[in-house]
């Protein structure tokens, strides 16, 4: 197993001026302090989000952060749509049935996406592409973003208040970063405002959703379908083969028991195009910092 960066493994970085990390590496205060003591002054994130990094400590220690702001927004947007279609038409269940010689259609009833209202939370690069694709399906798009995009609002979707989006949407898809302000954005209160039977898709960050509240929502049937590519405690689970292990996270295991839930292990980004972009951008980020001490993809810490 390749070790992840955390307090136990940080010494492996000793003597390396730059290190390269991904979404579930631990870059907290202790790790950053050890990195600084060991001579690291550049962290190259192979991802867009940096919610796993203690930014204040990085700033205090003079550690520069660079990231890959966009490696393929299409990869994630297309994956979000794939999850919607799979859940709605229950392709995951149908495929297993057919393999077992069961051709019954019982329980596989879906709905037309055409004319349905889709709520997009966060209309940055990925959210906008998701909305544009769904317009092609004939969906009505509602959007919520503290910084609305004028062109998207004119051509593809209508910006509304967060509460209105919750109340009107048949499907809600999360496309905003995880910040200190929106941790558990989807909590019990938000769920109570959603349409009964709503479909919820999260390809952004696990911490946006209060998983315990979601389980309650699934049990009461307020949430009719759920797809998660990210999970708030995924760092202990995802990206490893645990098929022979006993998974200790009971909340995660409970989620897996619902027939109307799909969970995948943070793979929305995982296309050949995205991997190529990640590698190219990461190498050029590091080279720019090394040669010019500046880089367009530097994380600016306020
Ligand atoms: P982006 O930075 O282009 O757009 C994010 C948008 O969210 C911005 O318009 C921002 O104003 C908005 N926003 C911020 N806080 C918000 C809030 N509380 N409510 C609503 N909107 C809010 O980011 P991009 O490239 O579109 O990525 C979105 C997220 O997707 C990333 O932050 C990351 O967490 C996730 N992601 C997941 C991947 C996966 O493999 N599952 C891969 C890549 C990104």
Automatic annotation (TrEMBL):
InterPro entries: D-isomer_2_OHA_DH_cat_dom (IPR006139), D-isomer_DH_CS (IPR029753), D-isomer_DH_CS1 (IPR029752), D-isomer_DH_NAD-bd (IPR006140), D-LDH-like (IPR058205), NAD(P)-bd_dom_sf (IPR036291). Its EC number is 1.1.1.28. Residues 81-268 form the D-isomer specific 2-hydroxyacid dehydrogenase NAD-binding domain. Keywords: NAD, Oxidoreductase. The gene is ldhA. Belongs to the D-isomer specific 2-hydroxyacid dehydrogenase family. Residues 4-299 form the D-isomer specific 2-hydroxyacid dehydrogenase catalytic domain. Gene3D superfamilies: NAD(P)-binding Rossmann-like Domain. This is Fermentative D-lactate dehydrogenase, NAD-dependent. It is an enzyme of class 1 (oxidoreductase). It holds the Pfam family 2-Hacid_dh. It comes from the Bacteria. PANTHER family: 2-HYDROXYACID DEHYDROGENASE HOMOLOG 1-RELATED. GO terms for molecular function: D-lactate dehydrogenase (NAD+) activity; NAD binding.
């Amino acid at each position: 197993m390749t070790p992840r960066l955390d307090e136990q493994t940080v010494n492996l970085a000793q003597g390396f001026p730059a290190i390269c990390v991904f979404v579930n590496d631990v870059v907290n205060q202790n790790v950053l302090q050890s990195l600084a003591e060991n001579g690291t002054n550049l962290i190259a994130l192979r991802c867009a989000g940096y919610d796993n990094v203690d930014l204040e400590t990085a700033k205090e220690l003079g550690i520069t952060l660079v990231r890959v702001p966009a490696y393929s927004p299409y990869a994630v947007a297309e994956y979000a749509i794939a999850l919607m279609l799979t859940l709605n038409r229950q392709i995951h269940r149908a495929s297993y049935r057919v393999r077992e010689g069961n051709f019954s259609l019982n329980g596989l009833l879906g709905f037309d996406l055409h004319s349905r209202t889709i709520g997009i939370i966060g209309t940055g690069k990925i959210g906008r592409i998701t909305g544009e694709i769904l317009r092609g399906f004939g969906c009505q798009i509602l959007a919520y973003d503290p910084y609305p995009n004028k062109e998207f609002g004119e051509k593809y979707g209508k910006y509304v208040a967060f509460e209105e989006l919750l109340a009107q949407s048949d499907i809600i898809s999360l496309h905003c970063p995880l910040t200190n302000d929106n941790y558990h954005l989807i909590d019990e209160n938000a769920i109570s405002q959603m349409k009964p039977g709503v479909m919820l898709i999260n390809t952004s960050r696990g911490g946006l959703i209060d998983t315990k509240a979601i389980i309650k929502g699934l049990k009461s049937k307020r949430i009719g379908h759920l797809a998660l590519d990210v999970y708030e405690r995924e760092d202990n689970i995802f990206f490893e083969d645990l098929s022979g292990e006993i998974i200790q996270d009971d909340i995660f295991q409970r989620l897996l028991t619902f027939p109307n839930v799909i969970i995948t292990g943070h793979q929305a980004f995982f296309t050949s195009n995205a991997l190529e972009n990640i590698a190219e951008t990461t190498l050029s980020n590091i080279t720019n910092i090394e040669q010019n001490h500046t880089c367009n993809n530097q994380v600016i810490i306020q």
